[in-house]
């Protein structure tokens, strides 16, 4: 069995503006079966765009290959670089890992051809290549970009990693919005979407795209137990209080039967006050375990801070009334009570296993984003660990 490889896909600014990101991610995960290990938003500088464009054009002896490379080079210079007014474009970098990853990604992406093929690749569906009567391209949109061989993948990923701090991360002041209550909100695509390679993560993102909001941050993350405890800290007191009455109603008949006695109302309340917080904490620990892969009461101090076994995708959306718009399409916590067409109705199973989390206020988003390290760069360490020096 061959060793695992890294490969990458860059979602173009046009695909992002047209809200095709979710569909593209679905295709990539479904068609490749690879592990999505990193993701990062970029607003490429002129320097990065020129350096990447130069890497895509080699001295190929094949005239058709050379023409395609020149087409891609010119596309990058025109569409990745900042506009004449200085406005930067959004590009999303997705990094995949697995056996034969480079070829599997290429197969899912498809080739750049002007005729539609039968494979229903990403470029079949989302790309365009229109030629005139003379056979020369008049319109070209590749939808995504990738590299055809491991050597190019390494060179390209090293380049993007070098610029991952200066040109990537949470993209502030990149998207222009209409006047109004412009907010940032955080979404977590929960671990139940990653149990096996499927289109679910992309499907959830696709529904969120109905809001018309802009993605300005995107990160693959493994929550530690400590992070999950902090993230869901406000929920603990709520659950402990919520379960007091339920504990009294559940435990009182059992105690009365076992002891052959009748409890007074104040005694039932005392039983609820005793057991409710314990029951509530147990449910809270189940939430932490679902998100991080382990229960707080079962891990050592060292293990609490280690990355968990469960994958999530953290996304920051920005736009007018972002919090409300995201929560409207997400639906209520209980999928059984969610309206048709919402994410939790379509993808949720239980109150806990309900596809996604969304901040309930702009203030909550500001609290939650640092917990999942939305500002931290986890792309560069992976590239350095895989390839060594970035030079």
Blueprint of the fold:
Blueprint: E1 4-11, H1 13-17, H2 21-32, E2 35-42, H3 46-56, H4 63-79, E3 91-99, H5 101-109, H6 122-126, E4 128-131, E5 137-141, E6 144-145, H7 150-162, E7 182-189, H8 200-208, E8 214-221, H9 225-231, H10 233-259, H11 265-292, H12 301-304, E9 312-320, H13 322-330, H14 343-347, E10 356-358, H15 362-371, H16 379-387
Antiparallel strand pairs: 1-3, 1-6, 2-3, 4-5, 7-9, 7-10, 8-9
Helix pairs in contact: 2-5, 2-8, 3-4, 3-7, 7-16, 9-11, 10-11
CATH superfamily of the domain at 1-169 and 375-391: Nucleoside diphosphate kinase-like domain
Rg, nearest Å: 25 Å
**Uncertain regions: pLDDT < 50 for 5+ in a row?**
none
Strand coverage percent: 15-25%
Order of helices and strands: EHHEHHEHHEEEHEHEHHHHEHHEHH
Could you say what the CATH topology of the domain at 1-169 and 375-391 is called?
Alpha-Beta Plaits
How would you describe the shape? elongated
Strand order of the largest sheet: 2-3-1-6
What composes the largest sheet? Answer: 4 strands, antiparallel
Give me the secondary-structure category. Answer: alpha+beta
Portion of residues in helices?
40-55%
Question: Class of the domain at 1-169 and 375-391 in CATH?
Answer: Alpha Beta
Q: What's the count of strands?
A: 10
């Amino acid at each position: 069995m061959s060793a695992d490889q890294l490969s990458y896909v860059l979602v173009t600014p046009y695909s992002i503006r047209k809200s095709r990101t979710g569909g593209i991610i679905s295709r990539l995960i479904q068609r490749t079966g690879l592990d999505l290990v990193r993701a990062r938003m970029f607003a490429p500088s002129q320097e990065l765009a020129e350096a990447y464009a130069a890497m895509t054009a080699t001295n190929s002896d094949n005239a058709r290959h050379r023409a395609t490379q020149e087409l891609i080079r010119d596309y990058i210079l025109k569409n990745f670089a900042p506009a004449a007014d200085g406005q930067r474009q959004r590009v999303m970098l997705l990094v995949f890992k697995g056996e034969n990853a480079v070829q599997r990604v290429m197969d899912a992406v498809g080739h750049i051809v002007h005729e539609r093929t039968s494979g229903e690749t990403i470029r079949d569906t989302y790309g365009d290549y229109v030629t005139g009567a003379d056979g020369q391209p008049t319109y070209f949109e590749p939808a995504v970009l990738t590299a055809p061989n491991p050597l190019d993948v390494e060179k390209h990923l090293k380049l993007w990693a070098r610029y991952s701090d200066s040109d990537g991360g949470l993209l502030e002041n990149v998207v222009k919005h209409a006047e109004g209550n412009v907010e940032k909100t955080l979404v977590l695509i929960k671990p139940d979407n990653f149990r096996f390679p499927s289109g679910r993560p992309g499907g959830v993102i696709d529904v969120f795209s109905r809001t018309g909001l802009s993605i300005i941050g995107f990160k693959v993350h493994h929550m530690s137990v400590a992070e999950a405890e902090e993230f869901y800290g406000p929920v603990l007191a709520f659950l402990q209080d919520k379960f007091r009455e339920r504990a009294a109603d559940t435990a009182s008949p059992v105690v009365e039967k076992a002891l052959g006695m009748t409890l007074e109302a104040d005694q039932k309340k005392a039983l609820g006050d005793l057991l409710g917080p314990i029951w509530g904490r147990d449910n809270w620990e189940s939430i932490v375990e679902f998100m991080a892969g382990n229960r707080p009461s079962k891990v050592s101090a060292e293990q609490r801070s280690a990355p968990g076994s469960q994958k999530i995708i953290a996304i920051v959306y920005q736009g007018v009334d972002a919090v409300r718009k995201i929560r409207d399409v997400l639906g209520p916590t209980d999928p059984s009570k969610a309206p048709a067409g919402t994410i939790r109705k379509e993808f949720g199973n239980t109150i806990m296993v309900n596809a996604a989390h969304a901040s309930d206020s702009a203030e909550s988003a500001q609290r939650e984003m640092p917990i999942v390290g939305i500002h931290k760069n986890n792309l560069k360490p992976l590239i350095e660990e895989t390839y060594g020096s970035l030079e």
